[in-house]
Amino acid sequence: MLIIILIPYLFLEIYTSLKMLEVIGAFWATVWTIATIMIGSILLKNSPYAVLGNMHAMYSGKLDTRKFQDATTSYLLGALLLILPGVLSDFLGVLALLYTVYLQFVAKITPEQPNPNDFYSHKGEDDVIDVEIIDEHDDRNDRIERR
């Protein structure tokens, strides 16, 4: 199944790269390729910070779990596609990064944000087990006294 998708993609990649080479020349095509590889590498290097930002947006209520997964996946996919040489992969990488920007800023429907004071004031109260010890033996003869 993968080979059925991969072969037409490779032909389209070669065709678009050759057309770009014909239009802008070999020097600028080389500059284009090196620049997109560097941009993709920088984005991939900064991906932990992007994921952390997405997690913060999810905690503050700007992203739900599904949008968090989509934003993180499209960011990483966009960075990897920019690293691959070729015009089509660069175009798809930019589309994936634009989708990430769309999820972060355009598609957010901000629900009520949690109050941080509520979170910290009730911390641990759900884990507390209230116990009362009842001493049924009133006489102290059944206990061992230590001297």
Describe how the helices and strands are arranged.
Blueprint: H1 2-24, H2 26-45, H3 47-59, H4 65-83, H5 87-106, H6 116-121
Based on the model shown, name its key terms.
147 residues; mainly alpha
How would you sum up this structure in a few lines?
The protein has 147 residues and is mainly α. The protein has six helices and no strands.
Radius of gyration: 29 Å
Mean pLDDT: 81
Uncertain spans:
none
What is the total tally of β strands? 0
Question: Which term fits the overall shape?
Answer: elongated
Order of helices and strands: HHHHHH
How does the helix and strand content classify structurally?
mainly alpha
The largest sheet is: none
Please give the share of residues in helix. Answer: 55-70%
**Helix count from the secondary structure assignment:** 6
**CA-CA gap between termini:** 83 Å
As a percent range, the share of strand residues is: under 5%
Describe the structure.
Helix content is 69%, strand content 0%. By secondary structure, it is mainly alpha-helical. Helix 2 packs antiparallel against helix 4 and helix 4 packs antiparallel against helix 5.
